Amino acid sequence: MKKTKIKTKDLSLFYGEKKALSNISMEIFEKEVTAFIGPSGCGKSTFLRIINRMNDLIDNVTITGKILVDGINIYDKNLDVVNLRKRIGMVFQKSNLFPKTIYENIVYGPKINGIKNKNELSEIVETTLKQAAIWNEVKDRLNESALSLSGGQQQRLCIARALAVKPEIVLMDEPASALDPLSTAKIEELIHQLKKEYTIVIVTHNMQQAARVSDKTAFFYLGELIELGNTTTIFTNPIVKQTEDYITGRFG
Amino acid sequence: MELTKHKKDIKGFTFILSLKIIFFFIVLILFLLLGKIVFEGIGIVNLEFIFEAPKNNMTEGGIWPAIFGTLAVTIIMVLIAVPIGVFSAIYINEYAKDTFLTRIIRTAVNNLAGVPSIVFGLFGFGFFILFIGKGIDSVLETGLFLGQPCLLWASATLAVLVLPIVIVSTLEALNSVPKSNRDASLGLGATKWQTIKNAVLPQASPGILTGTILAISRGAGETAPILFLGAAFFLPNLPVVDLCIGDYCIPMINPADQFMYLAYHIFILTTQSSNPTLTQPIQYGATLVLITITFLLNITAIIFRYRFRKTLGKI
Questions:
Q1: Rounded CA gap, B273 and B58, in Å?
Q2: What is the pTM of this model?
Q3: Is the pLDDT of residue B315 over 60?
Q4: Is the predicted pLDDT of residue A128 greater than 60, yes or no?
């Protein structure tokens, strides 16, 4: 039996008056890959951004209900958002590397956490790049601009950068949507490797991808969580009709 | 399918032709202007001309006091304008909420750039000299010290004048840093200030630098405001004072002194000359020097920007 990592209860989110998420209650387990699927605008990305409080940056957002990470309410007034984000890394839809060298991109997070020792930083760079399976491709060009890499490499570097702060959870917002099939396959393989150590939540539009990489799948529709279950069950034998319609492509 | 041309596109042709003519005229005017100045001025400009003081009622000698005054004023101006401008822009863009008040401030900054420079001169005279300067003098009981036109207030007034340039270019530079980079930094657990310092400012610095140098060349060429603010017709000495700590003395710019100013000097040579035939070459030489200084500043801006972009990997 796996441990619960993230737990939400009656979680709702409003943009002004508009309800974007309504009464989501779910559990996400440790060291598993949980995929969020659903049509555009169904709230899956919004929900993902709640987990590391990136929605704080948007004005006029209200959140009700509870979300617990390791049993701690992350919307508690006394909670330090900065520390929360160190524990919960995020990889975005489009690569958002800094226009700095590959090395500097990786050490950005550790440096902010106060690591100054050069050897320690180099070690972090090597281990995280190896973890992100990109070490062999970039080891000779660590001092070149990160923006000189290909799209797929850039995205894996983003993953490496997120891993460098040693998070427990990695949130991925359609990490492969802008990539070619080969790069996508590499990212998926990487996710597979990473789940041994990290809890991964991935938002994807690509249903085959959800089926390939995830242990659990959650289907969102119009701001509601329709169904959450084992990926194999969701894709072969969903309980709710809407899920089945969406998965089989019969959805409008 | 018919692919041969039937009709010539006459309208398009005339349009492009007129654009070419206009473009040619602009370049021509620029070349005539610069050509005349360079042609007339180059003969007189040499090291002596640059590093000597005017002699014989300004009909002989060089323009060093005016160059020195210009450099001194612009240096102090930059020291005042850049920190205030950059920090204001950071505040407006990154911290201030988008309210009615901040929108008014943004508009005000833009409009400030359109205020005629003579108005800044009057403002500087009224505010810096009569209000602040006289105020300091009466509080410190120094007699006439800062309550008169001097280098410090000229620099301060020019700083106010170029402030919109610094603020607007910094705002643009900050705005051009993609939101995704800020998200990346915050997502890695950086605080807002860490994000600004490590992810935003490095990317914005070429723009900020360009703004600074534009401000310098604007300030160095400005004439009207400094008329009230201590630019002198002719001064035998440089505005320099020895700053002594114990026995060690280093010459420093004296901010309470009057100064000569290149742009003003050219105006004087042109309008107040006792012997126009003799001063005319000096006038051309001084103009050439002024243009060269601003040109060099602009070149420096371009080189800096290029280097920055290169390190940022954008080239």
A1: 8
A2: 0.81
A3: no
A4: yes
Range name among A68-72, B110-114, B250-254 with the lowest pLDDT average: B250-254
Judge residue A84's burial from the number of C-beta atoms within 10 Å of its C-beta, 0-12 exposed, 13-18 middle, 19 or more buried: middle
- Exposed/middle/buried for residue B194 (C-beta within 10 Å: 0-12, 13-18, 19+): middle
pLDDT at A55: 84
- Cα A161 to Cα A175: distance, rounded to the nearest angstrom: 14
> Structure tokens of B114?
């359109």
- A85, A94, A148: residue with CB nearest B186: A85
ipTM metric: 0.87
Q: Which fold has domain B63-314?
A: MetI-like fold (1.10.3720)
| Residue A149 to chain B, least CA–CA distance (Å) | 11
Q: Do residues A5 and A164 touch, judged by C-beta distance below 8 A?
A: no
Give me the residue spans of the domains in chain B: 63-314
B183 touches chain A (CB under 8 A): yes
> Chain A residue with minimal CA distance to B183?
A54
Between the CA atoms of B69, B73, B78 and B80, what dihedral angle is there, to the nearest 10 degrees? Answer: 150
pLDDT for B224: 87
